[in-house]
Fold this protein.
Amino acid sequence: MTDLNSFIVRLPKAELHLHIEGSLEPELMFALAARNGVPIPYASVDEVRSAYAFSNLQDFLDIYYAGASVLVTEADFHDLAMAYFDRAAADGVVHAEIMFDPQTHTDRGIAFDTVIRGLLSAMAEAEATHGMTSALIMSFLRHLSEDAAFETLAMAEPWLDRIAAVGLDSSEVGHPPSKFAQVFAAARAKGLKLVAHAGEEGPPEYVYQALDLLNVDRIDHGNRALEDAALVERLAREGMTLTVCPLSNLKLCVVGDLADHPIDRMLAAGLKATVNSDDPAYFGGYVADNYRAVAAARGLSREDIATLARNSFTGSFLPPDAVAGHLAAIEGHVGMG
Ligand code: ADE
Ligand code: ZN
């Protein structure tokens, strides 16, 4: 391992933007397809990987929703999440706030309880085996209606003490945050934190809406906020966390080249940026791969990398004493060089 690579891997990190369905590696997709007798339109793992060439978000989503069809039983959701936790632990992730998309499963007849029980049992196992803490973010699919999001919130009612936040994902353009203002208000009234994808493909206006109409605690992605200087200034002033995903941005053509990635411009503008993997099985890398790739492409210093890791904890939904403990661990690591 190079010095920088080992610095990145050993640095304690939180992952704040990870779709658990997007951590389904082709090998597990094949194993689950066989286990459940679900047909998949690929002959081999290599064929799956070569299908992962996307020119925009929708190209990816079509393949991602099709892949999720192999997830049927509680054990499937457990195995999916455990594979992610094992991989993330190897990358030095000590806390993960993972999104799941209930509607992707309930709409094909899988019970909400099946999904969440499998995820929760893996979260308990990750804590026992890796000492890794985690939290769940229940994301609404924005290409569906707000009524459908309300139905999902109702299904989650018995589990609300196990869910940290609600989120908003899927096809961004044409489905502005304003469409979900009522259901986000209802979720907030139930004590849930709020996050939303905004400014990945959508315009700065969608970031304003996420702030003003949804009252989000974090913005997922937020890249296109950079097109609006007043918005950048506001996000910086408010200390709003952005969960940035460099390899995702590259694969979904949000940036043409990682050499043009704005991560260092975000930090220079005072934005509280973090580095995350989004859908690592589809975009070619887990958290440490994302740190490594963007650090190399933009010449980030160790101090920049440590700032990104600090932001991942101060932007998390962990209680203040846990945040303080992780920040102290980062300082210990930085001091060791
Ligand atoms: N669902 C999974 N990954 C996503 C992304 N990057 N943007 C929107 N929805 C998603
Ligand atoms: Zn995402």
